[in-house]
Structures are given as structure tokens and as C-alpha cells.
Amino acid sequence: MDQVPGSPQEPQDARGDDGLPGCYRHPDRPTGIRCTRCDRPICPECMVSASVGFQCPDCVRGGSGTGHAPRASVPRTIAGGTIAANPRLITMILMGINIAVFIAMTLDDGRLLGDLVMLGRTPPGYLPEGVAEGQWYRLVTAMFLHQQFAHIAFNMLSLWWLGPPLEAALGRLRFIALYLLAGLGGSALSYLLAAPSQPSLGASGAIFGLLGATAVLLRRLNYDMKPVLILLGLNLAFTFLWPHIAWQAHVGGLIVGAAVAFGMVHAPRDRRTLVQAATCAVALLAIAAVVWVRTLQLVG
Fold first, then answer.
1. The Peptidase S54 rhomboid domain covers which part of the protein (predicted)?
2. DSSP tag of 289
């Protein structure tokens, strides 16, 4: 953990390329947000949501500063989650699952792929069967499958880059919900629009969901949107121009990830948990509705 300056009034001279001051706990992270009590610059990982603005962890734990704001017993992230000592834990677990499944697929000569890949429906008499035949679990398992080394390498690098900042800003439980719902959104749209017998696999839907969530978070914090918008544009261009890419999964994950993140970071503080849970529930119901409609089309 980075060293915390001893005095609330200690000046912070670190400046980023855009002229913003660096977080007092993480000087290499430029930020435009300051603690409402001590006025020190704080990054998303250090922000603790308050009734007005955000506070730094020191002020929350020590009750420092003026005014009569109540001391919070547990520091909270911008989305209301608990601030974790290791903001990369869930990201590392997800990476570990993906890598373990990839190794298992490599060792079993493709049999695991046939059992877990996302398939809509296959012609009668063919194996494996698909989602339309009742194997709904494929919508989830496909999120953790990769065939080529370049495929999993690119997705895991993207997850390592996008995951920790979102995990720190949202909290672990909300980050897990975001990741899984975005991945399911990608599987659902692929199931709806792709050919029934076209297999779809990979963490790309969830990764695009994290990219959309990053854009929403930066907008919420009034950060410069140009870098993430450029990155998003390049990834979408690559999605539609490169052959053999399931663009449906990318777009579905992006839409669901951005929508869920919006509900999480814009939820009113007095009803935050309720609004966030309702946002996730609505997203899950929408995904289930898409799957149900497509299943009726395929078996009707």
C-alpha cells in the first residue's frame, strides 16, 4: 500500500500531463476531485462517498475537518462499495478462471469446447446441443472459453488494464455483477442475431462491458473522455472490420456494461443499494427476455 502523508494539509505538487494534481495517496494518478473536508486531491480508489461530494479515507476514519458530518464506520467507494485492501483481487480471480479453463481445453483435445461453447441450436441428430435445447448454461460458460493463445492473451491484458480501476471504484460485489451481466449481455445478443449453429466464445463481451463502464465512470468524475472514446472507437472498428469476430457479443456486452455502470454510479445516495439492485435486476430480466424470444423463434 502506498504511504499516506501524515498531515491533512500537506501540499501535493505532483502534476499530470493535463495539469491536474496527483492524488495525495497515489501521486501518479491525476485527479480533478478533492476531499470536501481537507481539500486534498483524491483518485477514484480513495474516494469515499459523502452526503455532499467525496471525502478521503483519512478524514472518514479520523473524523477530521470542520463541520459536524457523522463519522462513517466503513469507508465507501463512489458506488457505495466497501474499500478493499486489494482492489485487484476479483480481477485476478477472473483471470485465473479464464487461464485455467484455457489450459484444460488445451489438454482435452477440444471436448470441453464442445460442451461449453455458446451454440444457439444445431440440426437434429447433431451433437452438441445448444441453448434452444435447454442448455442455458452455455450463455455463461462461453464467457470463459478461448481457443487461441492470442485471443486469451489480448482479453486478459484488457481485463488487467480495465478491471482494477473499476473494481476499486465500484467495490468487489458490484464489479462482479457488472462483469457477469456484461458477459451475459454479449452472449444473449450473439444468441439473438448470429446464426443458430455459429459458435461464440470468449471474454470479449465482458471486456467491452468494462470498457463501456469505464467511459461512464470517467464521465461521472468529469475526467477527460478523449482517451477512452478513442480506445472504444478503435475497438469497435476492429470488431466490424476484422473477419471471424462475433460483433454481436462485443456490442451486447458494451450496451449492458454501460447501462449497469450508469445505474451504479448515478444512484441517489439515500436509495443507492435499492437502485443498484434494481438496475442489475432489470438488466438480467432484459437478457432473459432476449433469450426467451430467440428460443421461441428457433423451436416454434
1. 134-265
2. H
Amino acid in the structure at residue 220: R
Helix, strand, coil % over all residues of the chain, rounded to 5 = 55, 5, 40
Listing DSSP states for 150-219 in one string gives HHHHHHHHHHHHHHHHHHHHH-HHHHHHHHHHHHHHHHHHHHHHS-TT--B-SSHHHHHHHHHHHHHHHH
Is 89-299 in the same CATH topology as 1-76?
A: no
Instruction: Point out the residues of the chain with pLDDT beneath 50.
Output: 1-14, 16, 64-73
Phi, psi of 21 (to 5 degrees): -70, 155
Grid cell in block for residue 208: 467491452
What's domain 89-299's superfamily in CATH? Rhomboid-like (1.20.1540.10)
Separation of alpha carbons 54 and 36, rounded Å: 6
Phi, psi torsion values for 54, nearest 5 degrees: -130, 155
Return d(Cα 29, Cα 11) in angstroms, integer: 15
Residue 85 backbone zone (phi > 0: left; psi -120 to 50: alpha; other: beta):
alpha
Q: How far apart are CA 121 and CA 138, in angstroms?
A: 11
Query: Which among 12, 40, 39 is positioned nearest to 28, based on CA atoms?
Result: 12
Q: Which CATH number does the domain 1-76 belong to among 1.10.150, 3.30.565, 3.30.40, 1.10.3470?
A: 3.30.40
Q: Strands, DSSP E only, in the chain? A: 48-49, 54-55
The CB density around residue 126, as the number of other CB atoms within 10 Å, is 11
How confident is the model at residue 72, as a pLDDT?
Answer: 43
Q: What's residue 11's pLDDT?
A: 40
Among residues of the chain, what percentage have pLDDT more than 70?
86
The single-letter code of the amino acid at 132 is A
Domain residue ranges of the chain, discontinuous segments joined by +: 1-76, 89-299
pLDDT for 125 equals 66
> What φ, ψ does residue 269 adopt, rounded to 5°?
-60, -35
